[in-house]
Request: fold
Amino acid sequence: MINSYFFLYFIKFNGDNMEFKVGDIVTRNSYNNDTLFKISKIEDDICYLIGINVRLCADSLKDDLKLSDTEDREEEFLEKIKPKKLERNDYFYLPGKILHIDGDKEYLNRCLDYYNDFNIMAAGVLLKESNIPDKIYELLNEYNPDIVVITGHDAYLKKRNDSSNINLYKNSLYFKKAIEEARRFEKSHEKLVIIAGGCQSDYEELIKAGANFASSPKRVNIHALDPAIVATKMSLSDIAKDIDIKDILENTKYGAYGIGGIITKGTMHVGYPR
Reply:
């Protein structure tokens, strides 16, 4: 005989009657539960989601969600991108300065912590993606960085089946306009390195607008730290030498599927004696 208390508990916590709350960590059944999200807002039967480790915003019916009791295990990736000591010898190093503009506060703070781990001078600005084009020229003038990161959330409406139409992306058009404003501030790809885009962004349009690096060549999601990883590599690359672009991209979560770019020189000055 089934215990009635157990039966009621099972019904409540194992099916469509599950009650979710803001802050819960969930996955989507219709996507094979492949990505962890945090619930940021709930309206009626719709939950609005933010990726834990991917720069993706989504929404979902409650019936499609599954509460997750596991952490996103990515120790191997995090170990791979840990700081490695520079071989200083008799030289000293001046890494390039970074201005990181992000549409997501949690991702911004994670990226700033990452720069700090490498002792890189970086300033962070939280701005809604749609506001970045109007503010970026002023910010570049204020901070005068060697590298600017323009990122946040994005998404491609795959059901419309026209990846060449920038209007079918959540924020790619704003990223493009921000890049164009940044290039109005500094035309040279060598004097100002621009890294732009989020998950599934219109890679081709962002590169054509003037970005050195952009996401996403294969319209895949990118890791929250991917823009910071590329910025860090550029900050610590010799200003007198061309970068190894394949090496830089291989350090990101999804490699050339997630981010692509052009070969340029680094931004770090090397001096002697130490």
Q: What stands out?
A: The chain has a mean pLDDT of 89. Residues 172-185 form the longest helix (14 residues).
